[in-house]
């Protein structure tokens, strides 16, 4: 019998890649979105899997909605990728950020417990939880020091999950994913913004690109391979939390340079630094040690920042040519 | 200029002590209480000033931590110099039964106030105190715990408080609000909530000593806690808001006792000596000696004899995930603020027993005269 997976946040970048991965593995995939009838599922369409994913309307902040969908779908695996996903926006919408991330996770955990389902649960946590750790590489033992309402909400969700695992024995895992990008990233995220605007500059459609703090250092990976790590976590004997990252960090400046040079341009001719784009608090350096994922899951990133930048530029230029 | 303080959770233990402290310091004290059909102001009734009194220094407002507009409205009206956020669903065991409500009042409650301060434009003016908790340390990474010890929350209560802790830090760093966390270890008093283990013990043993009750059921007797007196701790809450720079502090005694030791100390206050027999869920506190007292009103020997079992374990009080040990290191509070707890453990227990004995004696008297007495149950 084929397994059934429920993906909350299926319309997003990770949800769409994960849906494709699970379909390829023979799963029945049910995707949940806040309003499935109104959602275009453009990402599923881009991956040409929209017809193969059944969809349900679920709002994870509504406990009854969560209960209903779990009873109806009876999934073997649940992937909770839903929630407000922008660090910048979380300063403007701290409450919604908490509710969609933290209350949403809590509702899922509570519903699983209440229905006594033998389900396996993956929850999308974030490298943002670590905050500034003096340039050290974060591992699974590194204490959290969140620096945005988004990160604080994700930290709360992480501990809720850990508590339900310990208190009630749920098979539940948090993936501490570092930045992961793809052509499906929305342009609100800095990587896609840079890629898209650089392509527009290349095509003569745009003048200058405005950026905030380009000295920040991040570990950028390739989203399509990160969703594989999510799946692997739920195939282990023991539920555990894992850092998922490429293990290589670069400055935003290096990313900008890579993007522009892959288009044959010098970034210094096209970029303006605008301090208004700075966040109230930001993380300077983010570095990861994904050794545990390699040791236990056998997962290792094939791509790092440069590959990611090239692939995104390629996809974007192709898109523009269409 | 008279300073104005706003206290959320003013009807609770800490709220009452803090209100008294601030009134003595000349503050105008405003408190937020929830509307309920039952009176819930016994702890602050002695401070109450009616709406018709002139120059009121103590004002209560109806509000709720889960209602943003009520909080904005009160902050707007009061324009406080200091806000003490003590309101919370504060019971760890209950948080396993009501995780969402706990998150809403404890985690989002803190966010709502911080956002209200920002929205109203009080960022420069208002100082914010967040009641954080030793439960954040949970399954402790090190002993004792200080301000640098990483957190490991073990209950929905602790996770909600973790959010409140970090969002307080974030609003301090992001917007420059003078905001502090007090990481308070357990703090007790005669007005501690009746369902918290210390008060449950002192109330029950007092009633057992006077023959109003036979036995008390407790949960994990091995749990070790750092118990201080709430009166000492609220002073530290105020001190944290009087510094040049906002910082977070551990507030603790640095000494630790198990629940069993607390029971022994409370029994000893009543002249009762206990022996512990059996183990785990079968453990029992058995009376081995009762001191005869000259004052019959306090004489437990009239009601108890050796061999009576007055403490039993009920696994219903075990938590899905237990916090076994908490011990605070208050060095930073001592070094930077010169704070040290004044009331030792023995005096705390003695004060609680004396208060609960008075209540038990009143009930005994009423019962003797044929009046119905309330037996409160959880």
Mean pLDDT of chain B: 95
Oligomer: heterodimer
What's the helix-strand series of chain A?
EHEHEHEHHEEHEEHEEEHEEHEEHH
Mean pLDDT of chain A: 96
Instruction: Tell me the β content of chain B.
Output: 15-25%
Largest interface: A-B, 31 and 31 residues
- What is the terminal separation of chain B in angstroms? 45 Å
The tally of helices of chain B reads 10
Radius of gyration of chain A (CA) equals 19 Å
Give the arrangement of secondary structure elements.
The complex is a heterodimer of chains A (322) and B (378).
Chain A: E1 4-8, H1 13-24, E2 28-33, H2 42-46, E3 54-57, H3 63-73, E4 77-80, H4 87-92, H5 94-115, E5 120-126, E6 137-138, H6 149-168, E7 171-177, E8 180-181, H7 190-202, E9 209-211, E10 217-218, E11 221-222, H8 223-233, E12 242-244, E13 250-251, H9 252-262, E14 271-273, E15 287-288, H10 291-297, H11 305-321
Parallel strand pairs in A: 1-2, 1-4, 2-3, 4-5, 5-7, 6-15, 7-12, 8-11, 9-14
Antiparallel strand pairs in A: 10-13
Helix pairs in contact in A: 1-8, 3-5, 5-6, 7-9, 7-11, 9-11
Chain B: E1 4-8, H1 13-24, E2 28-33, E3 58-62, H2 68-78, E4 82-85, H3 92-97, H4 99-120, E5 127-133, H5 156-175, E6 178-184, E7 187-188, H6 197-209, E8 216-218, E9 224-225, E10 228-229, H7 230-240, E11 249-251, E12 257-258, H8 259-269, E13 272-277, E14 284-290, E15 309-313, H9 331-337, H10 345-368
Parallel strand pairs in B: 1-2, 1-4, 2-3, 4-5, 5-6, 6-11, 7-10, 8-15
Antiparallel strand pairs in B: 9-12, 13-14, 14-15
Helix pairs in contact in B: 1-7, 2-4, 4-5, 6-8, 6-10, 8-10
Describe what this molecule looks like in 3D.
The complex is a heterodimer of chains A (322) and B (378). Chain A has helices at 13-24, 42-46, 63-73, 87-92, 94-115, 149-168, 190-202, 223-233, 252-262, 291-297, 305-321, and strands at residues 4-8, 28-33, 54-57, 77-80, 120-126, 137-138, 171-177, 180-181, 209-211, 217-218, 221-222, 242-244, 250-251, 271-273, 287-288. With 322 residues, chain A is of the alpha/beta class. The N and C termini of chain A lie far apart (41 Å). The mean pLDDT of chain A is 96. Chain B has helices spanning 13-24, 68-78, 92-97, 99-120, 156-175, 197-209, 230-240, 259-269, 331-337, 345-368, and strands at residues 4-8, 28-33, 58-62, 82-85, 127-133, 178-184, 187-188, 216-218, 224-225, 228-229, 249-251, 257-258, 272-277, 284-290, 309-313. Chain B is 36% helix and 17% strand. In chain B, the strands form four sheets. In chain B, strands 3-2-1-4-5-6-11 form a seven-stranded parallel β-sheet, sandwiched between helices. A four-stranded mixed β-sheet of chain B has the order 8-15-14-13. Chain B has a two-stranded parallel ribbon with strand order 7-10. Classes of the chains: A alpha/beta (322), B alpha/beta (378). The A-B interface holds A 63, 91, 94-95, 98-99, 102-103, 106-107, 110, 143-144, 146-149, 151-153, 155-156, 159-160, 163, 166-168, 279-281 and B 68, 96, 99-100, 103-104, 107-108, 111-112, 115, 150-151, 153-156, 158-160, 162-163, 166-167, 170, 173-175, 319-321.
């Amino acid at each position: 019998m084929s397994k059934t997976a429920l993906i909350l946040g299926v319309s997003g970048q990770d949800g769409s890649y994960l849906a494709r991965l699970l379909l390829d593995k023979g799963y029945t995939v049910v995707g949940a979105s806040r309003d499935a009838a109104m959602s275009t599922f453009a990402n599923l369409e881009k991956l040409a899997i929209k017809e193969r994913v059944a969809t349900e309307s679920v709002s994870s902040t509504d406990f009854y909605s969560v209960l209903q969908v779990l009873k109806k779908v009876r999934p073997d695996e649940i992937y909770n990728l839903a929630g407000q996903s922008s660090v910048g926006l979380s300063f403007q919408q701290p409450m919604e950020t908490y509710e969609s991330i933290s209350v949403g996770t809590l509702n899922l955990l509570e519903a699983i417990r209440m229905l006594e389902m033998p389900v396996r649960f993956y929850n999308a946590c974030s490298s943002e939880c670590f905050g500034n750790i003096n340039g050290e590489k974060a591992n699974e033992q590194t204490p959290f020091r969140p620096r945005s309402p988004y990160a604080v909400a994700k930290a709360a969700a992480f501990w809720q999950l850990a508590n339900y695992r310990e208190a009630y024995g749920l098979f539940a895992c948090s993936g501490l994913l570092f930045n992961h990008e793809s052509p499906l990233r929305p342009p609100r995220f800095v990587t896609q913004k840079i890629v898209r605007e650089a392509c527009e500059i290349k095509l003569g459609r745009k003048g200058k690109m405005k950026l905030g703090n380009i000295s920040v250092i991040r570990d950028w990976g390739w989203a399509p391979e990160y969703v594989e790590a999510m799946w692997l976590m739920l195939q282990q004997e023991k539920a555990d939390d894992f850092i998922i990252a490429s293990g290589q960090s670069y400055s935003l400046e290096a990313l900008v340079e890579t993007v522009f040079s892959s288009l044959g341009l010098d970034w210094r001719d096209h970029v303006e630094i605008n301090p208004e784009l700075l966040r109230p608090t930001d993380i300077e350096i983010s570095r990861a040690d994904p050794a545990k994922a390699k040791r236990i899951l056998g997962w290792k990133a094939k791509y790092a920042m440069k590959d990611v930048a090239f692939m995104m530029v390629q996809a974007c230029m192709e898109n523009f040519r269409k | 200029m008279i300073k104005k303080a706003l206290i959320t959770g003013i009807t609770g233990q800490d709220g009452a002590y803090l209100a008294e402290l601030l009134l003595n310091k000349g503050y105008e004290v405003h408190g937020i209480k929830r509307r309920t059909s039952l009176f819930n102001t016994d702890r602050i009734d002695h401070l109450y000033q009616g709406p018709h009194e002139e120059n009121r220094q103590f004002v209560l407002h109806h509000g709720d931590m889960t209602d943003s507009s009520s909080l904005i409205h009160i902050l707007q009206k009061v324009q406080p110099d200091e806000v003490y956020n003590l309101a919370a669903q504060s019971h760890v065991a209950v948080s396993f039964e009501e995780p969402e409500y706990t998150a809403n009042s404890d985690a989002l409650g803190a966010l709502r106030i911080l956002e209200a301060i920002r929205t109203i434009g009080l960022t420069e003016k208002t100082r914010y105190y967040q009641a954080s908790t030793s439960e954040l340390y949970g399954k402790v990474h090190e002993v004792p715990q200080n301000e640098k010890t990483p957190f490991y929350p073990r209950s929905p209560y602790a996770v909600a408080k973790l959010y409140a802790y970090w969002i307080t830090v974030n609003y301090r760093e992001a917007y420059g609000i003078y905001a502090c966390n007090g990481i308070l270890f357990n703090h007790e008093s005669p007005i501690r909530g009746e369902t918290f283990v210390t008060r449950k013990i002192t109330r029950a043993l007092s009633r057992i000593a006077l023959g109003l009750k036979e036995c008390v059921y407790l949960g994990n007797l091995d749990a070790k806690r750092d118990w201080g007196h709430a009166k000492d701790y609220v002073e530290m809450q105020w001190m944290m808001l009087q510094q040049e720079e906002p910082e977070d502090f551990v507030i603790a005694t640095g000494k630790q006792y198990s629940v069993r030791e607390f029971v022994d100390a409370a029994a000893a206050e009543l002249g009762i000596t206990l022996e512990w027999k059996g183990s785990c869920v079968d453990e029992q506190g058995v009376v081995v000696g009762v001191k005869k007292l000259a004052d019959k009103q306090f004489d437990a020997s009239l009601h108890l004899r050796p061999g009576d079992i007055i403490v039993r374990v009920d696994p219903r009080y075990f938590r899905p995930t237990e916090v076994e040990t908490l011990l605070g290191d208050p060095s930073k509070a001592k070094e930077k603020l010169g704070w040290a707890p004044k009331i030792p453990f023995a005096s705390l227990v003695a004060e609680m027993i004396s208060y609960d004995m008075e209540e038990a004696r009143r009930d005994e008297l009423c019962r003797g005269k044929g009046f119905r007495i309330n037996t409160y149950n959880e």
